[in-house]
Every structure is written in structure tokens, then in C-alpha cells.
Amino acid sequence: MQAQRAYKGTGGRDKDYWRCSRVGGGCGEVSRSYEAVQTLANAYVEEMLSRVPNLDPLEAHRSDIELRIEDLEAKSAEARRRWKAHQLADDGFFGLVNELSDEIKELRKQRTALRFNRTTMVDMRMLHVAIRSGRQASRETH
Questions:
Q1: What are phi and psi of 16, to 5 degrees?
Q2: Tens digit of pLDDT per residue, the chain (142 long)?
């Protein structure tokens, strides 16, 4: 579809519409009411944004991950301290440190994914607010 254009409709009033663009590979013949297309597009965007989960559970989960990482790092530091003091055998130390390290890496990946998801959701919420504000402004001018 090509951007909206205005034309004189019945009664000499300007009407906005969307037209199938020949430049974009379309037929150049089909056109639709701008207002109808925007109404459907806004309804679709609102429906998609209503499916975005609340941020609070993600924040709580992220806090749980942070606490778990801190706990595992403390256990790893304690194992190192005990190994250096010859209170822990080499095979026990290296097995434990490798296991803790693997779990910490996995939790850090989860934490990064949650940061990305949160940023995406905040961006979507901001887009939703902008769309609603734009639609309200559009209604006020028409």
C-alpha cells in the first residue's frame, strides 16, 4: 500500500485513502478508506500489545536469578578457600568448581535473556502509548 492521499469526495470534502502502489509492485487500482485501515491496524496492534505480560513477574524472576548467582559465587569462593587451605582434595575441588561455573554461566544467560525481554516489552508498551496518543490527537483534529 502506498501512503495516504487526499482527493475530493462527494460534496467536495477531502477524503484520505490508501492505494495499492504500482511503484511497489501493486496494481495501482485498489484503494481503501484511510480511516478503516487505521482502525483495523490500531485494533491489531492493541490486541498484540495486550498479550505482552506484566513486567513485575520478570523482575521477581530476575531477582531470584541474581540471588542464585551470588549464592553460587559465594560457594565457589568458599571452595577455593578450602582448597588453598588443603581442606578439599583436588578432584573434589575441580569437580565442584566446574559444576558451579556451568550453573553460573547458565543463570547469566537467563539473566541476559530477561534483560532483553524486559527492554523489548518496555519498548512495546511505549509504542502502545504513542499509538494511543496519536489516535486521540487524530480524533481531536477530525
A1: -95, 145
A2: 555 555 555 665 667 777 787 887 778 788 788 788 888 888 888 887 777 666 566 666 778 888 999 999 999 999 999 999 999 899 889 999 999 999 999 999 888 887 766 666 666 666 766 666 665 555 555 4
Q: Is residue 42 within 8 Å of 105, Cβ to Cβ?
A: no
For CA atoms 34, 39, 40, 44, give the dihedral sign: positive
What's the order of all strands across the beta sheet hosting 31-33? Answer: 2-8, 14-19, 31-33
Could you give the count of Cα atoms lying within 13 Å of 13 in the half-sphere of its Cβ?
A: 6
Alpha helices in 33-54, H assignment, sequence order? 34-50
Q: Alpha-carbon distance 97 to 90, whole Å?
A: 10
What cell was used for 28? 495501482
CA angle 42, 34, 18 (to 5 degrees): 115
